Amino acid sequence: MDWQTALAQLRARLPRQREAWGVRGSLRWLEQAMHARGANPSAVRNLIYRDIGTPQDRVALHAVLCALAGEVGLTLPPLARPVAAPLPPELELLGRSKRRAYKQFMASVRAGRDVRLTVSGPAGVGKTLLIEHLERELQQVDPPPQVRRLQLGASLEHGLALAPLDPALPYAVQAARQAAAAQAVLDELRADLPAVLLIRVTPGAAVSGVPARLPDGTGVSAGRWAAETLLRAAPPGVSVLLAVESASDLPDDLPGERIRLSLPTPSEARRYLMDRLGLPAGRADELVRQTGRHLDRLTLLAAARGAAGQGGPAASRLLADPAARQLLAALCASLPPDEPSAPASVLEAALGQPLSQLPVHLSALIDDVNPQTLRPVSAELLAEAREHLPAAELQAALTRLVDGTRGHPEHAIHHLRALATLDRWPEVVTWLDQHPERLDQAARLWPVARERAGGEAREGLARSVMTHHAMLGDYSHPQARDALFTLLDSPRASVRAWARVKLAESSMDAANVQAAQAQLQHPELRGPLDRPVQGDPWLQGAQADARLVEAALARWQGDLDLATRLAADPAVLHGGPYGTPARAALWRGLIAKDAGRWPEAMALLVGVPDDHPLLSARARYQEGDLRLRLGQPQAALNALEDAAGRLAVAGGTPDERARVEARIATALRRLGHPHPALQRSLQARALAQDVDSVLQARLSSEAIPVLLALFRPDEALQLAAGALALLERPGARRAEAEYRLRRTRYRAALAYLTRGLGLPYLPPFAGAVTDHPDLRQARRLLDRLLAEDGGGLDREQLLTFDILLSRALAEPDPLRALTFSTQALAMTDHPYAEAQARAARAEVRLRQGDADAALADINRGHALLRRVASGLGDTQLPDPGLQALLLALEARTALLHAPDLPTLRWLEQALSPAELAPFRSQVWRDVGRQLELLDPEAVVRTLRQLWPTWTAPTLRLPDALAWQQDHQDNGVPAADYTTTLV
User: pTM score > 0.85 for this model?
Assistant: First the structure.
């Protein structure tokens, strides 16, 4: 069909009518129409301009165009039918009966005729292979029919939407439900499209777990049932192929033809192997004799050389060979039923010899497309072998696998799984105690261990499972709760004590402080925890964890000295396999960070070893957070990106990864990159879709400044409203929710401040000189927050500091604004915070017109920022946003009374470092507002001295300077565009 001609004819006749999808008949409209029909919208242009597309997309587009043609009285030509594809090699070479069945069925479907066909034959003759090739080829028919495939077997049933039936039900009820299920299959096939039903029935098949019955309750074979309820009952427009082992019990009056399939002749089988495997005639004859001309076995041999093998050979012949049994046992030992492949070295360990020593006929059982990761060519073969292998031989293979993978951490999962299959659980516990960084393996084994392990081994596995989920912070996971209750039921007091500490730890993690305190006071804990313990790893671990929970409680209550002592307790450092120095270092780093002991905190966090993936990831996250606070956003970004990578490798929970992504967004925003910051913020919220409402609110709240940096205050306010709604139902995390509520209200005030000032929330962010309704709302919100008692915790003090700085910006009265900036300055406890407060006060003093006082604060801010860069011995540059703010303030101070060419030249040079590039246009915009207050002619003369092509712009001076800087940063010389501003 000529798609372009047809579309041109339609457009010439169709009225130019605009709809929701665009102009009727346009490419965009056609794409939406394709989407509405479930087709691929992207195929429209390929079909119209290049005539390239799938049969399904051709049919869909043809139908859309035909509908349009009908509206204007046109008739489009039908689609041409494709040329029939050649027969698949397995059918071309292996038997006339299969070729006949395939050709006859496909010819009828292509011709649009209903066909009823029954094929029969013994196992291995290729019935399933025939159905699979038909199913594949039917997808290429144009238009493709609906294809439904049903499989009925003794223990397998696919395609019938019927739950297992109770054998005790009356036969009439069973028959009625089976008939209803068959009718449902036919009803699902749309009456307006051709359909094909492919049915495979294997010996001993049942229907929903009970013998098949006709509608009158008569018991019949599954083949007879399918023939009566599906093949005979199929409505017009539905073609049916029924494949059974024997057609002897099928009724004579069954509609359609019957074809008896037969095994390939020796010459056909020999020719197939010679063609597919490139074998000489003698070797092909030998393999034909070995396979017994069994079609599945012949295709299995072809699969070993890359041909498409189908089906699984019968295992009985192979199991009669001792060498084949050993290989099958090794495959079963290496591959659980739910895994398709295993490393070659693991299979060799279970086999006890290199795979290169296998004879050719056994090598055919292994798919070696990837020489490092192997799989059997037939999953059906392995499933059958697993049922019939002698138990002693499977155990021998598992024992060889255990011995061969011992000492190889990359094969930990195979090693532990083999130990578990052999019920050698004490060895599993010992391995986990020696590899505390691999406790994820305990979680994999727990479903089996809780049923088969016993005594101390089961409790050891439960401890590993609980510790694994505790490290992830996932205390509510069903496995964690199951393991915890297993330990609380232990007859040993030391085990119960350890479990009760974990219970307190989980309460502390959920911010349920009262519950954690109460649990630590349980009678079973006070004795063991108050005295030294030796030789009992359970009590040693309980003491270590209890000290850390007590440290967390003290930290929560603001007693950082007590928290420091508890985290440094010797019990924490020597608390068994999981009371490691790494955990102690992380906790001590957190407490030192809260206490403002920055060098100590940084040293402890950096010192958490890399061989603890989750702990080191958390340390890097806390390091990044600390560097953000200390004014080193680039170093913070490096640490946070490292934390994100470690969490991804270590399997960190979505909520923990979301928190890291949100802080990465903050670091990017602080570096002046709001667009990538928004992408990371969206990733954070996508990861946290299923977490508790407090964390969702926190992530939404942290995204608000990113949107404000992009000057999208309306969206930011919508996000704030959603976060506040979430925080109204905090659940158990009420204390955390109260802080997040205050922080979110502060960010809502920031949104009003940003909209009221009309500036993106990026430095330099000048304060108000006139009032505005949004500024009044911002002041109301900020004053309300300042009136509340947030408590003495470090984060509350930091929030108050931020509120004071923003309150100064929102206040158009310079005297009142000075009060707030001075209060913020009094709160500072490190160089970066003081530099921020000095810059804020300098900005207010400039609004007052006090250049000397402003310059004093600016110079002090520059000096403090130099200390930020060197105070912790770090090579990273300090906060470029604060640098840009100080430079803008310094330039405005020099330009307070008259335009000054040396100042502008100095500013241009000072802004040259690459780190300041994201802030240049904002700095020039800020300077432009200062220049607007001066004599316009003097300003133009000065700017022409700086940029000879400068002329009086149509834009306001701040906008023109910002626009010029943006274009210079993009490589456009000023001379090329400033004249366009006239």
Answer: no
